[in-house]
Design brief:
By secondary structure, the chain is of the alpha/beta class. The chain has one domain: NagB/RpiA/CoA transferase-like (Rossmann fold, 3-Layer(aba) Sandwich), CATH 3.40.50. The strands form three sheets. A seven-stranded mixed beta sheet has the order 3-2-1-6-9-10-11. Strands 4-5 form a two-stranded antiparallel ribbon. Helix 2 packs parallel to helix 3.
């Protein structure tokens, strides 16, 4: 299984790297637009977002509009094998942290308050499968979130694959948003019924 995941990870990262900076910028803007139209993000609450690394879809354009809606944005901070959540209303307050990713400073927040979690991934499938970089940070965090928290994966369309291999510890997402489409996965409904 790990070999299959490694090959898929390499392929998805290569596809993402082949996008030009302009293609990434335009696609990220379209992802932000589609994300902001999500019904779950129309009301105030606590939303986990992320600061993009390298060539990931940059969601910086979503932070201001979310704040205007009364949303409190939370960002992850790596602490060993875990992610802590910290409130931050502006990406300019984030500092370089783990692997050069911008992270918040300040007191950690209980993950039990998260209403919507917007998470990155190396690859997603239309059924809610998510493949990360292999460290398990987001899988561990997603497992800690409230059962009614909506999980939204964001990526470029070139990172959507027919099927992401899943193991028991792999946490699915409820929605996948790209610049071209939105997939409502119902992944956790099927998982709970199984």
């Amino acid at each position: 299984m790990e070999d299959l995941k490694a090959r898929l990870r390499s392929s998805a990262l290569d596809a993402r790297r082949q996008l030009t900076p302009r293609e990434r910028r335009d696609a990220a803007a379209a992802i932000v637009d589609r994300l902001l139209r999500q019904p779950e993000l129309q009301r105030p609450g606590h939303v986990l977002v992320y600061a993009a690394m390298d060539d990931e879809a940059d969601l910086a354009g979503a932070v201001g509009p979310l704040r205007e809606r009364g949303v409190r944005t939370l960002f992850p901070r790596v602490r060993g094998e875990r992610l802590e959540l910290v409130a931050a209303s502006d990406l300019l307050t984030l500092e370089l942290g783990y692997r050069g990713i911008r992270e918040p400073s300040g007191p950690k927040i209980d993950p039990g308050i998260v209403d919507v979690a917007v998470v990155p991934g190396v690859a997603f499938d239309p059924h809610g499968g998510r493949l990360g970089h292999g460290g398990g940070h987001y899988d561990r965090l997603l497992a800690q979130l409230p059962p009614d928290c909506i999980r939204v994966g964001t990526c470029f369309s070139v990172q959507v694959v027919p099927r992401v291999p899943r193991e028991d510890h792999d946490e699915p997402v409820d929605v996948v948003v790209t610049e071209l489409a939105r997939y409502r996965t119902r992944a956790r409904e099927f998982r709970e019924d199984a």
